[in-house]
């Protein structure tokens, strides 16, 4: 057999073998695809939300210690997500219902995409380069993760709709009482201060913790057979 032909046949065989040995994830369930279960999707977004909250907590603490080491910052001031009505505790979240709780999670995540992007750009232009180069990279990481998390929660909601455990009308909408998020912090007269950044990080740490807890509650109320 010709050596060139033999080599081509070997390459074709290896490619077919590699394709047969993989099982790509796809949402529509085509042949050869692995369709993740609702439990799998929940686990992914819960893990992602835990990472987001952990990084946001670290960044807030590091920022506070660097710029305000002698003060005990209490997060005074109104967060831009104050217009989103959220359950105050676990019991209220459990009573809220799957449709409403999913809506709250999507609204919180959607309300943070623009402010986190603005935070990154503001930090990257700050003169405190010894700290803000590091912190702006973390802000960018969080911004990307929140975008991925919102996409993941959207996939969870779509799966819940297919299974008939979520209303078809559920989706992300900006409530009328929610002010333009970027304008709330960054489109104001005068220089954006470190305190502005700290307030934003405080608010995001609070809201990311809510999202993490709400996702866990939503999983338990949707899949009650699991040990929650």
UniProtKB/TrEMBL annotation:
It is found in: Secreted. Keywords: Disulfide bond, Hormone, Secreted, Signal. Its main location: secreted. Residues 1-20 form the signal peptide. GO terms for cellular component: extracellular space. GO terms for molecular function: hormone activity. It comes from the Eukaryota. The keyword Cytoplasm does not apply. It holds the Pfam family Hormone_1. GO terms for biological process: positive regulation of receptor signaling pathway via JAK-STAT; response to nutrient levels. InterPro entries: 4_helix_cytokine-like_core, Somatotropin/Prolactin, Somatotropin_CS. Belongs to the somatotropin/prolactin family. This is Prolactin-like. It comes from Labrus bergylta (ballan wrasse). The lineage of its organism: Eukaryota, Metazoa, Chordata, Craniata, Vertebrata.
